[in-house]
Amino acid sequence: MKNISKYKIDKTILIPIILFAFISLLTLHGASSILPSYMGDLTTKQLIWYAAGFVVAYIVMTIGNTHIYRIIWVLYGLGILSLIGLFFFGININDATCWYEIKGIGTIQPSEFMKIILIITLATMISKFNEDFQNPSITEEFYFLLKIMIIVLVPSILTFMQPDTGVVLIYLLITLVMLFVSGIRYRWFALLFGILGGFILLVLGIYFINQDLFINIFGTSFFLRVDRLLDWSNQSGYQLEQSLSSIGSAGLFGHGWNTNPIYFPEAQTDFIFAAFASHFGFIGSTLLLALIAFFDIRLIMLAVKTNKIINKYVIAGITGMLIYQQIQNIGMTFGLLPITGITLPFISYGGSSLLSYMIAMGMIFNISNENMRYTN
Questions:
Q1: The whole model's pTM is what?
Q2: Which residues of 30-54 are buried (b: 16+ CB within 10 A; e: fewer)?
Q3: What number is the average pLDDT over the span 179-196?
């Protein structure tokens, strides 16, 4: 444990998070007329989750990153057990079993925390590999990548079976980003993309040639997910059409806060950017995008300045995760990317996701504090 009171928190990272909280609460309250009534007052709930998130971030700062690195394999094991437990104790929402229900609190989604655990696990593995092998051979890299594949594949399979394809994509994206900055030979990426490309072509080939065979091989659930992706490529689907209408009709300054002339589902999570754009128009959306870009750049600059290799990998994983989710979430509201159910970090409603981001921010603040002490 450590005393964090004598260290200053990087305000260029803290202030954007506070602004994200304000924007999230503002948008949720403004969209209340089109939100499901059975979900209750989401604005108050989100405020509570944010308060809990800042407490969690403080606890992480008190514990310190070094201790977290030491116990990461225990955390990884607990994360895997929590994913397995969903098949026995999880609750089903919208044909997915991704959550535990905790009475008096709400639902908890283990895969959200698994994202952060995976980042720290991979950072620890990559850092140790680079320390042990200054100039690794192809064989040494191959065995290392096999270990990485196993570590990533286990939570990916369990999460895919829930089913939650969106989070699986985040697992894979985190892994690719962290391996890319690790310094391994780029030929492995060419090989990986070649294998993935071949698999995608095979899956799509079976889908278009014989859909009954596709269902027999991959199951109905996977068929529906592929069908949903193709709805995006055809620019069809009720959610997308309503989202485009809402954003397109907002103009420069929007319809106004608390004004929702067009209904679209999931305005609190997947399509919260569409709700914000509907309220505040092109000008408001541009300012939000600028704030997001500033926040991401600050994280990248921190990664460049930090001296510990393992910290660089942690920031790379966190930043890669956030940027991917930002691009994916905002892109799907405009029909530029497929609808995958990925939320907008710090803005969308959600307890588990918000707590996981605040855990990550606690680690970021620790790294920032270390960097400031080193500089001073």
A1: 0.87
A2: bbbebbeeeeeebbebbbebbeebb
A3: 80
